[in-house]
Structures are given as structure tokens and as C-alpha cells.
Design brief:
Helix content: 55-70%
Order of helices and strands: HHHHHHHH
Radius of gyration: 19 Å
Structural class: mainly alpha
Largest sheet: none
Strand content: under 5%
Number of strands: 0
């Protein structure tokens, strides 16, 4: 294992990442008897918990020491997110497979896009706060994820994001909205992972 991945694993195997994933597994296991009618709601909850886990991976507990390493902040953050994603994907897949087994009529394509959207939003919130200089952004980012989850539920029915819309094809427009969220979140995440513009200037190059 490379030093970067080893350090990333040490930073990720902490409560801000492992606790939401553990709660997600408990949620799936405890709700199996009711997932024939409430499977979509369970997947909604797992999506929020997965987003919290990705937000937790943006914590940089060794920021002061790691700043002297050959790895820039952007690469360290991306490596932690990658390690956390490797832990999150099996949990998310387990939730989707159980829900699909209990209710074969679930709109899996929509739920899959929603899962990607929420997890990417969690990673983006944490990465933006980390880029702004906050070495431990997990908890404020998790609060942001919860606020977003509540706001998504308050969207007018004509622009619904978590259920079938009351007009036209029930799922297609909702999927397109989530795709738009994915594109926007990915763009912001890419910007947040760039190295700061105010890097040390080399004499003679500032012309």
C-alpha cells in the first residue's frame, strides 16, 4: 500500500465515516420486513447516511504535518474520498439489493441517481469547507447534508426530487433534475479539489 493510501485509510477509519455507514447497515437490516412497501424510504435514508460518510472523509486530522509532505491538499482529499467511497459502495449496494428483492417495482434507476447525487453533495460540501481552510470540516458538512435532505423534501410537487411527480412521466423529469444536481456538484467538487491559487510565487515568474 502506498504511503498516501495508508495515511488516507488512517484518516478514514474514524467515527465521522464509519458511524454513518454502520447506522446505514443497521437501518437496512432492521427494516427488511417492511421494505416491500417502504423500501424507497429506506434507500432515501441510506443515501443521506452515505453522503454523511463521504463528508466525514474530508476531515484532514494530520493537516499540519501532511502540509509538509510531497502530496498537495487536493490529492490528499481526493485519496480520502476514494477510500471512503470504497467503503460506502458495498453498503449502498446492499441497501439497493435488499430493497429490490423485497419490492421488484422500485424505480432503481431513479434511486441510483439519487444515491449518487446525495453522496456527491456530501463530498462536495466537505471538500469546499476543506478548501476554505477548515481542517476538520466533517461535522459542519454533515449538518449541511441534513439541511439539504430536509430542503429536498420541501421542493414543490412540480419539481419533486424524491418521489414520482404528479404530472407527465413519473420518473424521467426527476432523474433529469438529479443529473443536473450531479453535474453541478461534480463541477464544484472539481474546483474545490484544485490547488489554491495563492501558492508560493516563484521569483521572476510574476510578470
Amino acid at each position: 500500500m502506498s504511503p498516501l493510501l495508508a495515511a488516507s485509510w488512517l484518516a478514514v477509519r474514524r467515527p465521522p465515516v464509519l458511524a454513518p455507514l454502520g447506522v446505514a447497515l443497521l437501518l437496512v437490516a432492521a427494516t427488511v420486513p417492511w421494505q416491500d412497501t417502504h423500501g424507497a424510504q429506506v434507500v432515501h435514508g441510506v443515501a443521506v447516511l452515505a453522503a454523511c460518510a463521504l463528508a466525514g472523509a474530508t476531515d484532514d486530522p494530520g493537516a499540519e504535518v501532511a502540509a509538509a509532505s510531497p502530496y498537495p491538499r487536493s490529492l490528499r482529499t481526493a485519496a480520502r474520498l476514494g477510500v471512503a467511497a470504497a467503503l460506502t459502495v458495498p453498503v449502498v449496494l446492499a441497501a439497493v439489493l435488499v430493497a429490490d428483492h423485497r419490492n421488484p417495482w422500485l424505480p432503481l434507476s431513479l434511486l441510483g441517481v439519487e444515491l449518487l447525487g446525495f453522496t456527491l453533495l456530501g463530498a462536495t460540501l466537505g471538500a469546499v469547507l476543506r478548501a476554505r481552510g477548515l481542517a476538520m470540516p466533517a461535522y459542519p458538512a454533515v449538518i449541511g447534508v441534513v439541511v439539504l435532505a430536509v430542503l429536498v423534501r420541501q421542493v414543490p410537487h412540480g419539481w419533486v426530487l424524491v418521489d414520482a411527480q404528479p404530472w407527465g412521466p413519473p420518473w424521467e423529469a426527476t432523474m433529469l433534475r438529479w443529473v443536473a444536481v450531479l453535474v453541478l456538484a461534480a463541477a464544484v467538487l472539481a474546483l474545490a479539489l484544485r490547488d489554491p491559487w495563492d501558492a508560493v510565487r516563484v521569483p521572476g515568474r510574476d510578470r
